[in-house]
Design a protein that fits this description.
It is built from 15 helices and 16 strands. By secondary structure, it is an alpha+beta fold.
């Protein structure tokens, strides 16, 4: 736009910042300009034109204090070397502060803030080295109800609020079409636990997918699938697959990208480390459930759909669940049992020993792998092989129980305990 100021001069106005050139000429020559016409040409409000004509200069820097600044002491503490909590992603830190410290800002604003603070940004750079893969995966999709992908997030060390460090495993099943996921927490990862988790997952889904994509975990495969061999599914897992009607499809060993859909969402479980040292075992279970609910209720970045709603479209394409009698065979039921004065618990009319310090306490009992597993909170107290015998003692338990009754020397107690256990085995053996 060219504005003629007199017969001898012209001023070119292409931006709002050029308007200040008119101010001295207007004052000297007592000129007036058509603000509305200039505003139309520049695509702005006439009031904005008036502001710039009066000498307004847009600031190049902003001095406004970020509302995230008040959280800086908390962020420093969380990211310090002394903190047991670990954050691999800025997103995880943002979510943690949002959930626990009432941070109220967009995730993108928070990421920019952290990136602008070298000490914070370097923390995440150091954590990401070796943690994030830069490999790209070929994208593929599957039909409704056709495929589920199975994986474990294995051997995660977690510090409880009690000061105890435990090793946990996270079971993940993901429906390939809807991206609906099921997370479950477990201390162990035996085959019976895996089958129980799968049974529970299929009941949640309301049906069974056509095929299950898995890696070559020992609880599934006796021999891994390779580029030159189809591998061998172990008999017990194959029986489970036959009972539920799905096909086992193992990945080629060394190619986890085949399960890219389930591998990528596992990153979300790094949020667990953000709570290191802050939760007890029950609260940790609740956290996993909370993460599971949140991811299923959030819009998926690839599909643009909400998984829990998208799942409804593939339910009609799932196989029917087997009869309840078959499903019950794979369930692991946790029951509460009380230790009696003889330091024993009862299971199916037989009694099994525990250390005497648990007399009068309630333990959690699970039965799998043909064994009794007894826990006190997160601690594994003992394991017994299931036997058709009225009284079942571990030697060290019986020795401890006997020591509460007799005051003989340690050598005598060992001998007495051995003799008594032999007699108990002979008298109470039902076989």
């Amino acid at each position: 736009m060219i504005i003629k100021t007199n017969v001898y001069s012209e001023i070119e106005i292409s931006t709002l910042e050029d308007l200040h050139k008119l101010n001295p000429i207007m004052e000297v020559n007592n000129l007036k300009v058509n603000k509305s016409e200039i505003a139309r040409e520049l695509g702005v409000d006439p009031r904005t034109v008036g502001k710039y004509l009066n000498g307004y200069i847009k600031p190049t820097t902003r001095n406004r204090k970020s509302k995230i600044d008040e959280f800086e002491p908390i962020i420093k503490e969380l990211l310090s070397d002394k903190s047991p909590q670990v954050f691999y992603y800025k997103r995880v830190l943002w979510q943690y502060l949002t959930d626990n410290h009432n941070l109220d800002c967009a995730q993108s604003s928070f990421r920019r803030y952290i990136s602008g603070k070298p000490e914070f940004n370097n923390y995440f750079k150091d954590r990401k080295n070796g943690h994030i893969s830069n490999s790209s995966n070929m994208r593929y999709e599957t039909a409704k109800g056709h495929q589920a992908q199975l994986d474990w997030k294995e051997s995660i060390d977690f510090l409880l609020s009690t000061g105890e460090t435990i090793t946990i495993n996270i079971f993940v099943l993901l429906m390939s079409y809807s991206r609906f996921r099921i997370y479950r927490l477990s201390i162990d990862k035996t085959q019976d636990i895996l089958l129980s988790f799968l049974n529970e997952s299929f009941e949640i889904l309301g049906g069974v997918p056509n095929e299950l994509l898995t890696d070559n975990m020992k609880t599934v495969m006796d021999a891994p699938r390779t580029q030159y061999s189809k591998g061998k599914v172990n008999n017990k897992f194959q029986q489970f697959a036959d009972d539920y009607g799905f096909v086992v499809r193992p990945c080629i060993a060394g190619r986890p990208n085949t399960k890219a859909k389930v591998e990528a969402p596992m990153k979300l479980l790094d949020e667990i480390r953000a709570y290191n040292g802050t939760l007890n075992f029950e609260e940790l279970h609740e956290l996993v459930a909370k993460l599971n609910n949140r991811v299923n209720s959030s819009c998926h970045t690839t599909t643009g759909k909400i998984p829990i709603l998208h799942l409804e479209k593939e339910k009609d394409f799932l196989f029917e669940l087997p009869k309840e009698q078959i499903r019950n065979h794979y369930n692991i039921i946790t029951t509460s049992v009380k230790v009696n004065l003889q330091s024993m618990i009862s299971y199916k009319s037989n009694q099994y020993s525990v250390p005497p310090e648990y007399i009068g306490k309630k333990l959690k009992l699970q039965v799998y792998d043909n064994q009794l597993h007894l826990h006190y909170n997160t601690k594994l107290v003992t394991i017994h092989e299931i036997k058709n015998q009225k009284l079942n003692y571990h030697y060290e338990h019986y020795l401890g129980i006997s020591s509460l009754t007799f005051t003989n020397s340690k050598l005598d107690m060992n001998e007495i305990a051995k003799n008594n256990l032999n007699l108990i085995g002979e008298i109470y053996n039902n076989e």
